[in-house]
Amino acid sequence: MNINYFREYYLILTVLLKNKIMGLLKFIIVGAAVGYGISYITKKGPDGRSILDDITDKAPGWLDQAKKFAEETIEQVKEYRQPKGNY
């Protein structure tokens, strides 16, 4: 057998293993970051409330603001699209 065959096989195997290991490391790092983020968001503060509690309390107000902004934007677009008649 040719020695080049073994070298190519070794290189391919090395690259595949590196990719698998890097993928596993990325998976572990992202998983740890998500776990820490969830822990941080749900941890109770000195007032007994978490960041998630504050977000869920404020969400309806943000939704109303977003709806209002969308309606105003739609009205502006409708006014802009109206034919002027000043040809």
What labels describe this entry?
2 domains, 2 helices, 87 residues, flat, mainly alpha, single chain
Write a brief structural summary.
With 87 residues, the chain is mainly alpha-helical. Helices cover 82% and strands 0% of the residues.
Q: What features would you describe in this structure?
A:
Helices cover about 80% and strands about 0% of the residues. The chain is mostly helical and about 90 residues long. The chain has 2 domains: about 1-40; about 45-80. The longest helix has about 40 residues, at about 5-40. The model has no long low-confidence stretch (mean pLDDT about 90).
Strand proportion, as a percent range, falls in under 5%
Topology as a string of helices (H) and strands (E): HH
Number of strands: 0
Class from helix and strand fractions: mainly alpha
The domain tally reads 2
Mean pLDDT reading = 88
Radius of gyration: 28 Å
**Bulk shape:** flat
Which parts are unreliable, with pLDDT below 50 for 5 consecutive residues or more?
none
The rounded distance between the terminal residues' Cα atoms is 84 Å
Number of helices: 2
How much helix is in the residues? over 70%
Biggest sheet descriptor:
none
